[in-house]
Predict the 3D structure of the following.
Amino acid sequence: MSGEPLRVFGYGSLIFKAPPHAVARHVGYIKGFARRFAQSSNDHRGTPEDPGRVVTIIHANEWNEFAATHPAGAADAFPEDQTVWGTVYEIDREKTVEVKAYLDYREKNGYSEDRVDVYGMVDGKEQVIFRDVLIYVGRLDNPAFVGPEPLDQLARHILTHAGPSGPNREYLYNLVKHVRLLCPESRDHYLETLEARVRRFEQLEHEQGTAPAKDDEGHA
């Protein structure tokens, strides 16, 4: 197979669960995007009857415009997080078709394809390290998009939901942990703030010996 290999940028669970037939992994970041727990999950961290929450990325200008008109948007102020750290996986050329089909199925619940430039630090200077990298984004008009939610409400939702891939909280905890481990510069203040809220409610649950009540809101 000629040409460039298939490269995919992972910003959620792909950071800690590599796609099959990945032959190389590179740390990098994309610019001008916001990573948010704004996507419902009825197939991995929730169920069709009671969806969980997973991350998506949205163009930062689109997210900011949407959040500005949303009741919960005013509290969503993390401008430093318009740089999203993640991993670029290079796929075995002989397995490109197979892996692309796997990714399409894996991201079927409301995600669309996009292509991005991925940046990195080379000899102390920022530069594009890969162009035209495949990424799956949750657009604002996709049916699984839920938009901004108050952080306490979102934290309780994540704490009380689970799906075929496991508890929703494990997904958050793993994501925060592995973003931190990417490199010394990799941070995500939104994720870290959300993790602290979930762990606080989890600690209260242990201290009180009761499970927190699920939120009453419906899911888009």
Remarks:
- The two ends are 42 Å apart (CA to CA).
- The mean pLDDT is 89.
- Helices lie at 60-68, 96-106, 151-159, 168-182, 189-208.
